Amino acid sequence: MAVTDEAIEKIKGMIVSGALRPGDRLPKESELAADLGLSRNSLREAVRALSLIRILDVRQGDGTYVTSLDPQLLLEALSFVVDFHRDDTVLEFLAVRRILEPAATAMASARITDAELDVLTAQLDALGAAPSVEELVACDLEFHRGIVQSSGNSVLCSLLDGLSGPTTRARVWRGLTQEDAVSRTLHEHRAILTALRDRDAEAARSWATVHIASVEQWLRSTL
Q1: Helices (H), the chain
Q2: Residue 109 in contact with residue 197, Cβ under 8 Å?
Q3: Is the distance from CB of 174 to CB of 93 less than 8 angstroms?
Q4: Sign for the pseudo-dihedral over CA of 153, 154, 157, 162
Q5: What span, in angstroms and rounded, lies between the C-alpha atoms of 125 and 189?
Q6: What is the pLDDT of residues 186-214, one digit of tens each?
């Protein structure tokens, strides 16, 4: 194991064991390196790596702290990694979204408020019957984000938010090239909202699946 990897594992072990808790300040570099049997250089590299993935927070002139370890904070690193996707992996991102988002939509059916549904409905109404593709895709992202947030699961929300980026271009391209893409998207959004207002979890799940699968199916046909 590389010395930096060993240092990362030792700091991780301290956090997992509870020796370091969220918000705790790490001991001074010289003390921690001695306690863990590490060189100060390998410890410094480990701290730098763990700060990049939001495990540690390095504050200039103050010290290094364990972050809140909140799932939403930690999963921000996923968005960074996802940005490096290749075009030929978009289908894989869509497949993951098709698995997770219908479940989140079904969960939201029991938790989403009438006021939240009214906001989503107003957003759709404001689009009109013939929005531009760019307007539709922007609304689509906010529409699904609003529903997933209402699921009450912050981890699921963060995961899906991170996965939405790679599929955005596919959604725009579909809107530009598929004749009925705009009208179908609007219809499917309305159907999802109806299911949510009816508190019908299975209908909400089914319509969300249909909605995502239609983009996936179109993309497969173009490859």
Answers
A1: 3-17, 29-36, 40-52, 71-74, 76-82, 90-108, 114-127, 133-149, 154-177, 181-197, 201-222
A2: no
A3: no
A4: negative
A5: 11
A6: 999 999 999 999 999 999 999 999 998 88
Please answer whether residues 56 and 66 qualify as being in contact, where contact means their C-beta atoms are separated by less than 8 angstroms. Answer: yes
Contact, 47 vs 78, CB < 8 A?
no
Task: Give the sign of the dihedral formed by CA 171, CA 172, CA 178, CA 182.
Answer: positive
What is the distance of C-alpha 97 from the center of its chain? 10
Distance CA 118, CA 123 (A): 9
pLDDT per residue as tens digits for the range 132-178: 888 888 888 899 999 999 999 988 888 888 777 666 666 665 665 66
Separation between Cα atoms, residue 173 and residue 169, nearest integer Å: 6
CA atoms within 13 A on the CB side of 6: 11
Task: Count Cα atoms within 13 angstroms, Cβ side, for 215.
Answer: 31
Other residues' Cβ atoms within 10 Å of the Cβ of residue 2: 9
- pTM across the whole model: 0.68
Apex CA 157: angle with CA 151 and CA 160, to 5°?
125
Q: Angle, to 10 degrees, between the axis of helix 40-52 and the axis of helix 3-17?
A: 60
